[in-house]
Amino acid sequence: MPTTRRQAAIAEGKISPAKEKKAKEKKPSSTKKSNGSPQKRSHDKVEEKQEYVKEEETGEAPKKKAKTDKEKEESRQDRYQAGRRAHERTLKTIINPLKGTIERGHIYFFYRPRVQVEEVNSIDDIRNFHILLVPRPPEFAVHTGESSNNQTKKEDPENSEKSEQKVLARGADAVPAPDNSTSTKKQYRLITVGKKKLPDPESHQGGSRRKETFFAIVTDVGDNLDDLEKGLGEKTYQTKTRGERHEGPARLVARGGYAIVNSDADKPSARETHLGYHVSHPPPAELGDVQKSLGIFSASSFILQVKNPRAPANGPQQAHSKGAEYPEWIMRDIFGAASGHSSNVKGRENYGLRFASCETPELLNYRGADLILIASRDGEEGLETSLGDGRGNALADAENKEVRKPVENVFKELSLDLDKFPVESLEGSWI
């Protein structure tokens, strides 16, 4: 029995059941927008199929829609801003955090005799005086020592608590890790001091209060100790006027640990970089006339500054120096040299500051870098005052323990052949 008018109309034959079914199919099932007519959707599928067939036949992807000038400019600006942000992150990583200890390692002092001088009796017989810096990681970063192939051993979980205590120890960032490696692959810098000795903290220039100030130059930078041995070794060569000439090998006169520390100052101009060292060999009680003549104390420090290579030379010696070829970011961000539209110009000249503190050890990694060494303080108490925050005391404690290391091991650290380099000079005697 029909219950609705529509069912009654179907029963009376006024509405065909087939038409009713067709009407229901045409009626939309929801109020959502249609994605387009069936004809349009079919057309889109045909186009997609044609593009796919074209790609299969030619091996070429369909061409992308060309960018408008506005889109190109926006893309260029995005790349510029991304590059600028990356540059700022680099500067923050390289410069801003470099307060406190920026480097530590082992320091060595050498002198080379004058040409044709077989036996050195005083500083007058010396041709060159060198400082050798071999950077090392901090001691707390090397938990269980090193293997013979210079690879750091895996940390022992049982020592993790001790490791954390070392990290938190006052002044631990200035203590270099011991070097038990026999590998020749080590970074080094050879610095030649013009006055053939270190500036004396107890001496003053011309009777004034001004501390002794000496110029120095980075004469060699490398990562292979075999090259260093050749450079410091014995030399024989021919000259047109004097014939064969001979230079004896460089003499090692002291070894110890060093730390380079940047003071934390409100103004960049007030910031100072101190290089402090403590000698382990020879022991402090055995320092002889050789070390005294060269200005080497058992513990001492000096202020380190770097000369702008674009600044005018201060003397005839620097006039003949080529100078370091620093990258543009160092010239701009450390020395403040004018660069394009940069407003980060420092000083009164376009080349920027004449001298700068050692904001980053990267400044020492270029041959020809001109340095200034200004005498600061001597003794363990003076070392602590210069480095601060317990660093001087921590370095002194570490090097006093290193005294027990045999002299032969000191030469092995640098891969120096004991048959070619004399040992007597390290014992305080001229040779």
TrEMBL record:
<feature type="region of interest" description="Disordered">
    <location>
        <begin position="1"/>
        <end position="88"/>
    </location>
</feature>
<protein>
    <submittedName>
        <fullName>Uncharacterized protein</fullName>
    </submittedName>
</protein>
<feature type="region of interest" description="Disordered">
    <location>
        <begin position="141"/>
        <end position="185"/>
    </location>
</feature>
<feature type="compositionally biased region" description="Basic and acidic residues">
    <location>
        <begin position="44"/>
        <end position="81"/>
    </location>
</feature>
<feature type="compositionally biased region" description="Basic and acidic residues">
    <location>
        <begin position="152"/>
        <end position="167"/>
    </location>
</feature>
<feature type="compositionally biased region" description="Basic and acidic residues">
    <location>
        <begin position="17"/>
        <end position="28"/>
    </location>
</feature>
